[in-house]
């Protein structure tokens, strides 16, 4: 009896230790401002993150899933001249989209966004780590509950709030 409790405690402590062993290097990587990436490295790193993380929802062709995941290909926010809103959305999330502010460094967010802004049919300018830093600092303490602005809804798609009722879901082709 006592033995099995002890064994469980030991098991729990080793799991905690393992978690810390994995998490600490991950966190310190994210915090490292690292050496600035070249334009090529930015695209490479950005694509690597896109195709391991964002792809789950926004899909390999960047077109998302109609009525659920907004497209980033020709995406309203992704292609704005001023990347502030794009940076803000990826840092702090929106609706069903997770926030990435504690997952990625300024360099990494800049790389992901730069990749997306030049992928598929997109043709927008690169994003710098300094721009990401500025948005992060300006909004870091703000609890974000930002509704999707109507103007940002791609043509042919209904508003995310209406999408919560599956019977109102629409596809761009419909
Ligand atoms: C778990 C699914 C999921 C993942 C992973 C995800 N997103 Fe999203 N994303 C969403 C959803 C859902 C929305 C729509 C949010 C809403 O309802 O307003 C969205 C919206 C967006 C928008 C706003 C598009 C627009 O034009 O309004 C951007 C930009 C975006 N995501 C970028 C990203 C990036 C970059 C990544 C990877 C780092 C990512 N997302 C990962 C689900 C996801």
How would you explain this protein's 3D organization?
There is one protein chain. This protein has 174 residues and is an all-alpha fold. 50% of the residues lie in helices and 0% in strands. It is built from 6 helices and no strands. The longest helix is centred in the first third of the chain and has 30 residues, at 2-31.
The assigned structural class equals: mainly alpha
The largest pleated sheet is described as: none
Total domains: 2
Alpha carbon gyration radius: 20 Å
Residue share in helices?
40-55%
Task: Compute the number of helices.
Answer: 6
- The CATH superfamily of the largest domain is identified as Cytochrome c-like domain
At CATH level 2, the architecture of the largest domain is Orthogonal Bundle
Uncertain segments are 163-169
Distance between the termini: 64 Å
CATH structural fold name of the largest domain: Cytochrome Bc1 Complex, Chain D, domain 2
Identify the bound ligands: heme C
What is the name of the CATH class of the largest domain? Mainly Alpha
* Principal-axis shape: globular
Query: What is the N-to-C order of secondary-structure elements (H for helix, E for strand)?
Result: HHHHHH
């Amino acid at each position: 009896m006592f033995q099995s409790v002890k064994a469980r405690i030991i098991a729990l402590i080793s799991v905690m230790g393992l978690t810390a062993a994995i998490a600490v290097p991950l966190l310190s990587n994210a915090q490292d401002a690292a050496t600035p990436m070249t334009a090529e490295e930015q695209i490479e790193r950005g694509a690597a993150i896109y195709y391991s993380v964002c792809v789950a929802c926004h899909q390999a062709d960047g077109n998302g899933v109609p009525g659920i995941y907004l497209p980033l290909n020709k995406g309203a926010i992704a292609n704005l001249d001023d990347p502030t809103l794009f940076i803000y959305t990826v840092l702090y999330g929106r609706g069903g989209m997770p926030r990435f502010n504690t997952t990625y460094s300024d360099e990494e967010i800049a790389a992901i966004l730069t990749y997306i802004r030049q992928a598929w049919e997109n043709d927008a300018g690169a994003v710098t780590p300094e721009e990401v830093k500025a948005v992060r600092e300006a909004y870091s303490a703000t609890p974000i509950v930002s509704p999707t602005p109507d103007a940002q809804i791609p043509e042919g798609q209904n508003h995310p709030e209406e999408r919560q009722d599956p019977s109102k879901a629409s596809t761009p082709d419909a």
